[in-house]
Every structure is written in C-alpha cells, then in structure tokens.
Amino acid sequence: MKVGVIGGGPSGLAIARMLSDKGYEVYVYEAHRSFAVKPCGWGYPTPDSDEKKYGVFSEAVKASLWVFKGYNVYLNDDLLFHSDKQILGYIIDKKQFLENLSQGIEVERGSPARYLGGGLIRGRSGVKRFDIVIIAGGFPAQPRRLDRILAVQAIIKSPRIEDAEIPELRFYSDLVGYAWVFPEGEKTARVGVGGYADRETLEKILSMVIKKRQDLAKGEVIKKEGAEVTVSGIDWDLARSRDPFYVGEALGYTMPVTGEGIRPAIWSSIALFNAIENGNSYEEELRKLKLTRFIGIQRKILDIMLKMKPSERDLFIKNVPEDLMLDLSLGRAGTFDLLRLAKIPELAMILAKYAIKII
Fold it and tell me: Strand, helix or coil at 29?
C-alpha cells in the first residue's frame, strides 16, 4: 500500500517511520531542503512509562544535546519556584532526530507539495498517486486558520551560561504567554517568548529577559527567529477526515498553554498508525490518548487566563501549587488537578466571578 506524507516534521516522519517499518511504501514531501527549519525551543520532556514503549520517543532522547535537572519559574521577575533535584527533560537536536527517523524512507526535499484529491499529490517531481494521504505540514497546512500566537526566539552564544542545567520559565501578569531560557550546553542558550501580543511587544520582552541575566547580556545573538504556534486545541472536524488524514500541528495537536509540539506530534501519529493498522477510527484512537485529555485541559486553562485581568492572572499564578504548576507545564495534569485548582479559595473566587466551570 502506498502512503504519501506531506511534511517532514516530527508528526510526518514519525508516521512515515512506523508505517515503513510495517512494510508500507511511504513517500515523504518536505517543503524545505533540510529538516527542522521552523523555529523551536527544541525542548523535550522526559518520556513517561507509555512513551518508553515506542521507538520514536527513544529516538528523540538519543538525539539529546543537553539534560535539564530542575527549573526556575518567575512571575514578574520574582522567583516563584526552584528545583535542581530531578531530570525533567532535554534539549534535543531536532534536525538530527528527524534525519534519524527518515533513514530508509524516500524523502523529496525542497518540494512544497499540494494534495489534489483522489490520492494525487503534486510535488517537485510531478504528480504521484497514493492509497493513503497524510497532511503533516504544520500550521500552513490547516484548511482553516486555527487559534495561533506568535513566538520569537534568540539563539545566544556566551562565554559561560550560568546554571546551564536549569531552564527558566518567566510569566508576566500582562502577558497571556511566557518567556523561556533553555540552555543548550554551557555556552549556548535558546531564549524566547510567545503569547497573545504583537511582535513589537514580544521583542521588547525578549530584550528585557536577555538584559536581566549578565551571562546572556554578555553573549552574542547569533540568530533571531519567529514563528506562529497553534494553541487552539484539536480540530475534531479534521480528526474525522479520512481523505486526507491530518496529524501534528496541522490537526491542532499541540499543547495550548506551553506550545510544546514535538511530543504531541508523535502521539497524533501513533493514533493514526493504530487506526490504519487496525482499521479503526482515527478520531477514536485520538480520544483514547491521555495527551488528548491533557490538551483539552491546557486549552481550558488558557481560556481562563484570557478572561482574567492582569492582577487576577498574577493571583492565579501565585496560588497554583508547585507540583501542579509542573504537571501543567509538562502537559500531564488531569481532571483531579483541575479540581484541586477549583478548591483553592483565591482561585475559586476568580472562577466564580467569570462563571467559569473548570471541568
């Protein structure tokens, strides 16, 4: 059976890898001449017990450049939480990760392909027919525009990155979003900010974050980049489509609060792989995933934050317990965690004010 995949990102190459290993004839179209062109923090959480069962997640860890052993969380530049006691995730070489997944798979690079319908894809080399077509082209491939935010990032080289094993998350009362500092070793860091704001505002916050740390301020910005990030949650109409199928960010399958995309992309491809292999409904396979519930929870949190005034967001963030903040950030918070939020008096007052039902 021939499978055409439009998009050589994590979702496209993950589904291509799994189907190819099962004997499907897979052909991937990648618009760019190299992988991992879209700006990304390259952060990747430590795999949980479910993820350790799948080789595609292991490939991501194998491509790691740096290990994170804690975190600093700030609110309006005041330290809120600190830990240096556990491995929480990695900075991975996303380009190498995708190269590894693509081994043995035919990839037509530099080919902005278009699906014509009826199993036909037009790429740089002409028109080819496939039995199954999968759209994995990220947000540009969405048939209708889903809710997105802008993110900007600077890659900085410095003589020395302080506390290089500790990533930073910085929240601000007047921004629905956050800034990050992700060290990529002892001399390089990815520093960025994303949220519901225009580019000029985000650039100012980025500059402020860099100036706050002497190690970053003394460094050299070797690259500045920006991209839109889908934060809508899952487009269930697309999940019901069979011709073509949609995976990853094209489906809206990203974490709405954190913008995390690599791990969700892989999970959406696992759901599609199971649907194709077992003749099941793709929508049903997606609904079985724990991460699908977590995406819904993050979108609900985001909706709450968007309704709040800056002073209320300040109060909200200050009163979220540290362990719950960690679970929310890693996309592993469940319904019970939402109930915990609703029982915190300061948060209950805010929820009641806006008549928000948290579950």
Answer: strand
Global pTM value: 0.94
Q: How far apart are CA 359 and CA 103, in angstroms?
A: 43
As a whole number of angstroms, the distance between CA 252 and CA 331 comes to 15
Segments making up each domain of the chain, as ranges: 2-42+93-145+232-292, 148-230, 308-353
| Fold adopted by 148-230 | D-Amino Acid Oxidase; Chain A, domain 2 (3.30.9)
Alpha-carbon dihedral of residues 296, 302, 308, 312, nearest 10 degrees?
100
What's the fold here for domain 2-42+93-145+232-292? FAD/NAD(P)-binding domain (3.50.50)
Peptide bond into 244 cis (omega under 30): yes
Give the number of C-alpha atoms closer than 13 A to the C-alpha of residue 208, restricted to the C-beta side.
Answer: 14
Q: Give the contacts of 243 (CB within 8 A, at least 6 positions apart).
A: 117, 119, 133
pLDDT tens, 209-246? 999 999 999 999 999 999 999 999 999 999 999 999 99
Q: Residues 229, 194: contact at Cβ < 8 Å?
A: yes
